[in-house]
């Protein structure tokens, strides 16, 4: 078998205002300060007083954030000449223990801007019994609130409120897939009537299933604890939650991923097909886990395949 991407593509059919309070530090390759929006204007739901403090550590692959208390969206806007009204909320990965916010967040946001797509990097709360009454819903609360907030701010940023997608890497892919399959019953005590359904999903080497055979043990334990019930495991095994209303989905995975088995993407793709949801999946023979935008084992660039997919579905049309 030649070392080239395996493409599986079916059904490519069309498918209270907050102000930025601070700015994100600029990356070494990008001197532009970015507005940072707090997700919540008042008290943060599913939170309780604690001594937990956010930490940020720079490692070889970039910044890793943990113990998030104040969830935010960092805003990356395309130039007015390129802007097409589509936006994507990005959920970095990190096993529900940390956020790889550079190479699975800011770097991807800048590349989306080149397509004319606005990007919002979500710093979501990671499950923590010390600071959350119910740690299993805190990340999803934040993802759903991010969708509400971008929809509310659409006019300010010149966005189409019906063209807001959700992208996730690894455990962030689990969060995005959860948001894309659990939108009919939003979590929280007062979810309101605003839609929390993304227009499309983009899932990169995602954790999908919490079943014993496919799970990423760290992600499942961090979100649900060491002894989750059978009902919890089923609820958060997103291949079992797909319906005909699940958004069109773009999937990328490496077959030699030893952290999150490639079967996670495959079972989600199969579930989408059973429900006639448009889907496209790219499987690379090699690449391992956590490669971000650059799978060094191939000259093929999945981000270019994504651009083609977005274009084919009309999301890059002005």
**Secondary structure: number of strands:** 13
CATH topology: Rossmann fold
Radius of gyration: 18 Å
CATH architecture: 3-Layer(aba) Sandwich
Strand order in space, largest sheet = 1-13-12-11-10-7-9-6-3-2
How are helices and strands ordered from N to C?
EEEEEEEEHEHHEHEHHEHEH
Question: Structural class, please?
Answer: alpha/beta
Total count of helical runs of at least 4 residues: 8
What is the typical, i.e. mean, pLDDT? Answer: 90
Strand content: 15-25%
Biggest sheet descriptor = 10 strands, mixed
Low-confidence stretches: 1-21
CATH class: Alpha Beta
Residue share in helices?
25-40%
The number of domains is 1
General shape: globular
Organism: Hymenobacter ginkgonis
Signal peptide: 1-20
Protein name: Prolyl oligopeptidase family serine peptidase
Pfam family, one: BD-FAE
What's the SSE blueprint?
Layout: E1 6-10, E2 22-24, E3 34-38, E4 55-59, E5 62-66, E6 72-76, E7 87-91, E8 99-100, H1 102-114, E9 118-123, H2 138-152, H3 154-157, E10 164-169, H4 171-181, E11 201-204, H5 217-224, H6 230-235, E12 249-254, H7 263-274, E13 279-284, H8 302-312
Parallel strand pairs: 7-9, 7-10, 10-11, 11-12, 12-13
Antiparallel strand pairs: 1-13, 2-3, 3-6, 4-5, 5-8, 6-9
């Amino acid at each position: 078998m030649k070392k080239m991407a395996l493409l599986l593509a079916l059904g490519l059919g069309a498918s209270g205002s907050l102000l930025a309070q601070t700015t994100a530090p600029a990356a070494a390759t990008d001197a532009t300060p970015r507005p940072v929006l707090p997700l919540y204007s008042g008290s943060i739901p599913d939170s309780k007083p604690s001594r937990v403090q956010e930490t940020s550590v720079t490692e070889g692959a970039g910044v890793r954030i943990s113990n998030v208390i104040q969830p935010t969206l960092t805003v990356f806007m395309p130039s007015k000449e390129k802007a097409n009204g589509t936006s994507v909320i990005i959920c970095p990965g990190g096993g529900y223990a940390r956020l790889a916010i550079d190479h699975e967040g800011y770097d991807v946001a800048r590349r989306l801007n080149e397509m004319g797509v606005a990007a919002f990097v979500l710093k979501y709360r990671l499950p923590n019994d010390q600071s959350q009454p119910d740690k299993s819903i805190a990340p999803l609360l934040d993802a759903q609130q991010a969708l509400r907030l971008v929809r509310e701010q659409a006019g300010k940023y010149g966005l189409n409120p019906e063209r807001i997608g959700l992208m996730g890497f690894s455990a962030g892919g689990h969060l995005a897939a959860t948001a894309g399959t659990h939108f009919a019953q939003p979590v929280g005590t007062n979810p309101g009537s605003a839609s929390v359904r993304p227009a499309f999903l983009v899932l990169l080497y995602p954790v999908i299933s919490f079943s014993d055979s496919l799970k990423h043990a760290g992600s499942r334990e961090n979100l649900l604890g060491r002894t989750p019930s059978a009902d919890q495991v089923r609820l958060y095994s997103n291949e079992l939650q797909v319906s005909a209303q699940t958004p069109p989905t773009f999937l990328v995975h490496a077959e030699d991923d030893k952290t999150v088995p490639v079967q996670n993407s495959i079972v989600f793709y199969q579930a989408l097909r059973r429900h006639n949801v448009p889907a496209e999946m790219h499987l690379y023979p090699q690449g391992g886990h956590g490669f971000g935008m650059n799978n060094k084992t191939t000259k093929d660039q999945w981000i270019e395949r994504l651009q083609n997919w977005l274009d084919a579905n009309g999301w890059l049309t002005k």
